Structure formats: C-alpha cells, structure tokens
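Quick one, probably user error.
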C-alpha cells in the first residue's frame, strides 16, 4: 500500500487508549496520522492539517462527534473531507443522523481491523475519484463557457456588422435622395446669382425711363435706346425665368425637408411609454381621418372584432403605421387602374397577439420587389411620387418598437394583404 504512505488521516477520540489502538493499526499500513482528543481540538487540527479523511468518535464530552461534523461541513475549507464516524452505539437513528450530517460511513466499536482498513481505503479512493471528476467537470465547464463566450462575441460582431451595413445602406440612400433636390437648389441659386446683375441693369433702365417721363423729356430716340438695352439684357426673359427658378429651388428645399422628416420618423426613439390601447378605436378613427385619401379611389370596409383585448402600443406611432399602409393600398388600387377598388381593414385576437390586416384589390407586389419593400428608399413609384420610406417606418415601429411582426401576401393583378401582429 505505497500510495497510503502520503495520506494523512485525523483520528478523534476522547479515550487515549482507543487512539493508541486505532493509531497502531493505521500506522502499520503506512498512513500518516494527526490525533485529537476533543471536539474543539479536532476542529482546530482539521483546519490546520487538512487531512484526507477523518475518523470521528461520536460520544465525547462538551462537543460530540455530530457537532464536530456539523462544524466541519459548515466550513468550506473542511467541508469536502470525508468523515467516518466511530461509534459504540448501533442504534439506527444515530447512524441516520450521522449520514444526514454529511458523514460518508460509520464503523461500530469495537471494530474489526481489516474491515476498518477496507472502509478507510475505499473512502480515500472515492474521495480521490470525486476530486478527479470535479476537476474534469470544472475543466469541461470552463471550456463550454469559453466556447459560449466566443460564440456570443461572434454573434455580437455579426450583429454590429449588419447594423453598420444597414446604416451604410441608409446613409447611401439618404445621400442619394438628398443629392438630386440639392443639386436643383444649387443650380437654380446659381442661375439667380449670375443673372442678378442683368436684372439690376434692366431695372436701372426703367428707373432712367421713369426719371425722363417725370421730367417730360422723353423722346423717341431715348426710348428706343432704352428698349434696345433692355432687349440686349434679355430683361423680359429674365423676368419670366426668375419666378420659375425660385419655385424650383423652393420645391427642392421642400423635398429635402420631406426626406429629413422621414428620417426623423425612422430614427427618432420616442421615450413614449407603451399604453394599453384599443386598436379598434385607433383603426376606426384613423380610417375616418384618411377618408379624403381613400374615398375617391376605393370602398373601405371595417371588420373589427368586438371586445378586442387591449394591446400595449404607442398610439401615435401605430397611427403612422396605418397611414403608410393605407397610402400604399390606395396607390396600389390606382396603379391597378381597374376602376374603384376595395379595401378591407380587420382586427382579430389570437392566443397571445392581436392581428391587424389591411387588404386591397390593387396591383399587387411584383415578385422581384418582395424582398426589398421594407428597405429604406426602396420604391417602385416615380420620382417625386414615392420615397420608399413608408414600409421602412412601418417595420421600425411594428418590429423594433412594439416587438411585433409584419407579413404580407400578394398576387400581381389581384391585390395585397398586410398583416401586423402585435403581442398582447
Ligand atoms: N399594398 C401594396 N400593393 C402593392 N405594392 C405595394 C403595396 N405596399 C407597398 N408596395 C410596394 O412596396 C414599395 C415600398 O413601399 P413604401 O411604402 O416603403 O414606399 P413608397 O410607397 O414607394 O414611398 P413612400 O411611402 O415613401 O411615399 C412600393 O413602392 C410598392 O412597390
Ligand atoms: Mg408608401
């Protein structure tokens, strides 16, 4: 038993004679021993030498073995040391109590030396195996944790890359959209600036004419000279072009403003709190407000589920969602050019969500556009008619702000249904 030579045991007994007998048997097997003759001493020695196993007498004055065991188990430094009770009492309830306190075994006195040695050896091996197992588990856990952290980091990087990509696309779109009207503004301003001196010269001619008329000195030759100068400066042409250039410049500025407002709608993170909202009421009132928009183009039918549960919602944002969806539906009906169309707005409650649907009998969404309709600045409409921001805003509100989902079904030439799912 060469292994046993390094193994230190603590034996605790208040009877010196018992310690001698027990010590003799164990020493013979090569175990190193520490001894204690009282509970208090046992605790002190155990904490100091950290034995690999403790043989603990139950019946001792002052602090009995059970109490010692309790203290050992309560201290993290000694909690893992296996304890074998030595007891003269064979009553079952004592044994049970010993096990409840965390002992691994018990031996009754007077003991049978081979049996005692076998038990000691078994528990030392078990303790060794357990430590080994714990080490393996700890290693495996560490490895899993590292892998998990690596995966989290990779996911985070990917999400960041996607966000940047989205941001890049958005920035590209904004730059592109703003560039055209801005160029119009710039070229019209340039025209106004370059032609201002000519216009001023023309005005000077008129001022001169005015002075001559006033003084009653105007003659045909002078009049002719002034007319020639005005014609040479292209005064009539400029007088006609200036208002047009100003109007073009102003419309360019308006378009830029429009884009900026759409961006604000998209990125503004409202600190508004969600409030329990009656979606039916919101749908009905928004439909009513939009009456001038849809009435010339289509019939609108409402099919609202009675007693619809309230949903946590941002009513202002949700109203915008409806405005954008309705605008698209009306545009689609007009694009279909099949006379008056039909729109159906419905609400339904399901297990844990409320679904709002808007169906139209419009032109439908062509297959090649379906992947992109929620992208900012994606539009199939003419320049000036659509900016491609409506569904981007709808997506932002429904998915990102309200934690819902949006889906659509569409058939070219028949129509489209958009479904907004909001969690209850
Ligand atoms: N109900 C619909 N029927 C057919 N096509 C639709 C419908 N709703 C959206 N689309 C398609 O999705 C595209 C993107 O819609 P979105 O509302 O984002 O932009 P837009 O309507 O073109 O412009 P904006 O809303 O900024 O005025 C539209 O150009 C159109 O092709
Ligand atoms: Mg739209």
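Nope, works fine. Designed sequence:
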């Amino acid at each position: 038993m060469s292994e046993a030579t390094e193994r230190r045991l603590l034996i605790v007994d208040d009877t010196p004679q018992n310690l001698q007998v027990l010590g003799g048997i164990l020493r013979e097997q090569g175990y190193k021993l520490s001894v204690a003759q009282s509970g208090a001493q046992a605790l002190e020695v155990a904490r100091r030498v950290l034995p690999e196993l403790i043989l603990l007498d139950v019946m001792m004055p002052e602090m009995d073995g059970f109490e010692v065991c309790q203290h050992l188990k309560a201290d993290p430094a000694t909690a893992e040391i296996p304890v074998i009770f030595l007891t003269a009492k064979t009553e079952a309830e004592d044994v049970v109590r010993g096990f409840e306190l965390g002992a691994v075994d018990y031996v009754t006195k007077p003991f049978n030396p081979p049996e005692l040695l076998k038990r000691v050896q078994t528990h030392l091996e078990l303790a060794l195996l357990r430590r080994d197992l714990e080490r393996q588990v700890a290693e495996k856990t560490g490895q899993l944790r590292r892998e998990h952290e690596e995966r989290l980091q990779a996911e985070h990087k990917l999400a960041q890359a996607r966000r940047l990509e989205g941001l890049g696309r958005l920035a590209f779109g904004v730059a592109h959209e703003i560039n055209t009207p801005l160029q119009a503004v710039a070229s019209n301003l340039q025209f106004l600036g370059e032609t201002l001196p000519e216009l001023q010269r023309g005005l000077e001619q008129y001022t001169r004419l005015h002075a001559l008329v006033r003084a009653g000195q105007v003659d045909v030759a002078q009049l002719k000279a002034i007319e020639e100068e005005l014609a040479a400066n292209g005064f009539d042409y400029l007088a006609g072009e200036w208002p047009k250039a100003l109007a073009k410049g102003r419309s360019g500025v308006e378009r830029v403003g429009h884009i900026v407002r759409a961006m604000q709608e998209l990125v503004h993170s409202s600190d508004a709190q969600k409030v329990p909202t009656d979606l039916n009421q919101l749908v009905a009132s928004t439909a009513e407000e939009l009456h001038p928009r849809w009435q010339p183009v289509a019939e609108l039918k409402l099919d609202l589920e009675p007693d619809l549960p309230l949903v946590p919602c941002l009513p202002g944002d949700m109203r915008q969602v409806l405005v954008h969806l309705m605008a698209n539906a009306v545009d689609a009906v007009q694009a279909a050019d099949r006379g008056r169309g039909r729109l159906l707005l419905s609400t339904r409650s399901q297990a844990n969500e409320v679904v709002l649907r808007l169906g139209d009998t419009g032109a439908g969404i062509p297959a090649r556009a379906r992947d992109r309709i929620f992208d900012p600045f994606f539009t199939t409409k003419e320049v000036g008619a659509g900016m491609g921001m409506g569904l981007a805003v709808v997506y932002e509100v429904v998915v990102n702000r309200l934690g819902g989902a949006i889906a659509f079904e569409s058939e070219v030439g028949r129509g489209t249904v958009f479904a907004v799912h909001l969690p209850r």
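The CA atoms of residues 357 and 419 lie 4 Å apart.
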